[in-house]
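Cross-check.
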Amino acid sequence: MEKIKITIVDDHLLFSQSLSYLIGTFEEFEVIGNFNNGKEFVQSFPAAITPDIILLDVNMPIMDGIETMKWIKANHPGLRAIALSVNDDEATVMKMITNGAKGYLLKDTHPKTFREALLEVHQKGFYYSEMVSGYMINKLGNHDNKVILKEREVEFIKLACTEKTYKEIADGMCLSPKTIDGYRENLFQKLEIKTRIGLVLYAIKNKIVCI
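Predicted model, tokenized:
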């Protein structure tokens, strides 16, 4: 059986080596490359062997995970990357997902969950852990496109899936920040979500935006 090829991009040598060892214990996978930062990874292309999955640290010097993810999305959109971080704040998760990351894992993820995430990204194309998205996945899974969205609501959702602030969204839609707050709260209630990450996941699941 041909093994699934993994590349690790992380500036912490000890973590990178430990992760390589862990992956080596999974019969389905093999590590074919380790890079200290995004710049080193980018400069490795065109590579003789293209990885099936990239494990991408979010916080790195020189070229961080967000910038690297933007480069992958622009130049090799077919590459599947999973973000790795100790940080689960909403803004960081959203930036990685909207820039094309197929999953987001905290670095203290259990090895069993980590292996499952690798398999799901390889087989299904994405994995959003319960640890990061919490209850939202279950909530979103109950929606089957029965929710009717107005044209302006769809426009707002698309803009909310970018890195724009709510004030910038208000300016782009020629509306007041107060009106935008109303759009946000109404959608949160309508879609049974509580955060901007939930809105992004809903948009991806229902193909309002593509990553």
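The longest strand covers residues 29-35. Residues 135-143 have pLDDT under 50 and may be disordered. Passed to J.P. for a second look.
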